[in-house]
Amino acid sequence: MKRVPDSTVRRLSLYLGFLEELEGSGDATVSSDVLARLGGTTSAQVRKDLSIFGSFGKRGLGYFVPELTGKLRDILGLGRDWHVCIVGAGKIGLALAQYPGFREKGFHVSALYDTSPAKIGSRLDSIPVRDVARLALDAEREHFDIGVIAVPAGGAQWVADTMVAAGIKAIMNFAPLQIVVPPDVVTRTVNMGLEFEALSFALANLSK
Amino acid sequence: MKRVPDSTVRRLSLYLGFLEELEGSGDATVSSDVLARLGGTTSAQVRKDLSIFGSFGKRGLGYFVPELTGKLRDILGLGRDWHVCIVGAGKIGLALAQYPGFREKGFHVSALYDTSPAKIGSRLDSIPVRDVARLALDAEREHFDIGVIAVPAGGAQWVADTMVAAGIKAIMNFAPLQIVVPPDVVTRTVNMGLEFEALSFALANLSK
DNA sequence: GTAACTTTGTGAAGAAATTCACAAGCCCTC
DNA sequence: GAGGGCTTGTGAATTTCTTCACAAAGTTAC
Known about the structure:
The structure is a homodimer. Chain A has helices at 6-24, 32-39, 43-51, 65-75, 91-98, 100-104, 135-141, 153-165, 192-204; strands at 29-30, 63-64, 82-87, 107-114, 123-124, 127-131, 146-149, 170-173, 186-189.
């Protein structure tokens, strides 16, 4: 398939959000122009983004909301359930495991892992908290699609290596650190500090 | 000043992180090549990023770690303290208000705002939780540099409008929704759902 | 002091992403 | 069923970002 820019994927996610809202309010069709306004972009951009994957619209009318919603879900791989394991039963790990919207999108947290004996063996809702030493072993029985790293910077690379060894091909990293993985493993790093520093930069340079 | 790509700002933040580590381990100088490796980019990219703001290196030697650290802090506006108010005393709002790393970077949370009478009037550490209706009024006395939106999607635009009316020029938005603000106000939206959907997309298209 | 080696800073080239602009298709009205 | 009005899909133009490649400048070793 044609290479898909990261920015396009982000925008498709946004469009999907808008479409779900529009579906709720009963709109049957939507134009690229409306989607563009909602997403803070241009109608040409919307059409280009979609055109990578096919032509879903009707000239003179726009896009059928339910149809495009479905297409976008398919494209983004949201039609199915993903099995997720979270390493780090701290604030972020627990928040994520409990967040209902996460499950609704098809991300099922099968297990939490930690090193703290106080936490190991407990349960959060129905999710077991296990010793991270068991991760590789468990991965042989259970299949994890996505691994979430929610530990401090120091342990992140070790966790990543463990996940890679366990055959996990997609890693979401919340540690404020670049992790290194083989080329066949996908990672995304979410770093709130970075976002705030970008805001700080913008503020510091508002006038210039 | 020359326009600075968003991607450059993100990388500068990354470099700063590495420099702070290098400073800790006592390295006196660092080359663009080393920074590039750490950040998963190329040495030419590192030099271009820096060259937007000046020439900080020494040919044949590299960059002096403490000097470059300082320059980057300046560039990113991290030399000073920013006054932050957070609207929404839920999970995200509270987590942010309590996170020590946040204050260390110069982001001082002066106040939390909420609508829930149960929360209004309480304190988190020394941070007061106030009625959001007071925000505009408070902003006249206290000066808020950055407003954080940590409320559900439904209330986000209203909070944004209130912040804009209160004269806040930089908004960090955690609601899963694009907020609309005048052109002189900077916003950044952090949307974890988007990140996971990007991962889902990558997984769904690994083979293709 | 000189030669060999390193590393920066930066124009120029190349690649990637966005915007423009318009033909083609579809709806709606009369 | 013909004409006017919208909106898509997409090549081409433009803009933006990244990579290349190399002169200039500094360091180190002898």
